[in-house]
Amino acid sequence: MTLDWFLTHIFEFALTAICGGLVVYIRGLHKKYHAMEEGMQALLRESIISSYRYYKTKGYCEPEERVALAKTYNAYHDLGGNDIATDLYNRVLKLPTEDTKEPGYVEQEAKS
Fold first, then answer.
1. 61 occurs within a structural domain
2. Which of 25, 64, 88, 100 is the most buried (most CB within 10 A)?
3. Distance of alpha carbon 49 from alpha carbon 64, whole angstroms
4. Is residue 108 part of a domain?
5. Which residues lie closer than 8 Å to 95 by C-beta, 6 or more apart?
């Protein structure tokens, strides 16, 4: 065994270990990235659902509120979301842009 042979094998071993470690590290990063992406998508979906409930109860959605909701929806859609939240977003867009109730109007509570 010569010094060159020994150094070559040590270098090969070190390079193999470093490459293996990088593969494990990159897989871990990918897993965390995917989890963060899924979590963000879930939060955006919940925001869209909550917005739908709010605007449906309110009866209208003003233009500036639509802009904020559109930004939320676009981020959600860019993350791959395309389920019930898309339908709810489209329902909000069909709502009037201003209050159509007469001033002083009070809704009657449903009797049980």
1. yes
2. 88
3. 18
4. no
5. 55, 56, 59, 60, 61
Q: How many domains does the chain have?
A: 1
Instruction: Answer yes or no: is 48 within a domain.
Output: yes
Degrees, nearest 5: CA angle 39-43-48: 145
| Phi, psi values for residue 96, rounded to 5° | -60, 160
Choice among 1-5, 44-48, 50-54 with the minimum mean pLDDT:
1-5
Long-range pairs, 49-53, Cβ under 8 A, ≥24: 49/84, 49/85, 49/88, 51/88, 51/92, 52/88, 52/89, 52/91, 52/92
Host domain of residue 25: 3-94
Q: What is the pLDDT of residues 59-74, one digit of tens each?
A: 999 999 999 999 999 9
